[in-house]
Amino acid sequence: MAMGIWDVEEWKSRITVRQLLQWQAYWTIEPFGDEWRRAGRAALTAATGFGAKVEAEAEERFLPSYREKPQTLEELRAELAKIPAFAKQMQGNG
Fold it and tell me: I need a labelling partner for 70 at 20 to 30 A (CA). Which of 6, 9, 26, 93 fits?
């Protein structure tokens, strides 16, 4: 679709072997199709440049497909207990 062609079968019938080989050669020099990963890498680089303390695998966190594991009820309560107003309420209501 990035080439403006919606019908893959039509594209396959129109492209020559020579053209395909040229596209493959171009891709080895300038890879395309991984824009989100490159954007995630740039975001990670910017974050670390501003002093953020992140692990090397944090690039995944900047991708739209990233999903953290669901938080357990105990983890949620522990995080809420760090907020003074919630900690006070939790002590009073259990």
Answer: 93
Range of the domain at 7: 1-33
Judged on CB neighbours under 10 Å (0-12, 13-18, 19+), 40 is buried
Does 72 map to a domain? Answer: no
The two tokens of residue 66 are 């990233």
* pLDDT tens digits for range 5-62: 788 888 888 889 999 999 899 888 877 778 888 888 888 889 888 998 888 778 888 7
Q: What single string gives the DSSP state of each residue in 22-79?
A: HHHHHHHHS--S-HHHHHHHHHHHHHHHTT----GGGGGGGSTT--PPPPPHHHHHHH
Are 63 and 36 in contact by the 8 Å Cβ rule? The answer is yes
In a domain, residue 28? The reply is yes
Q: What is the pTM of this model?
A: 0.41
User: What phi-psi label fits residue 33: left (phi over 0), alpha (psi between -120 and 50 degrees) or beta?
Assistant: left
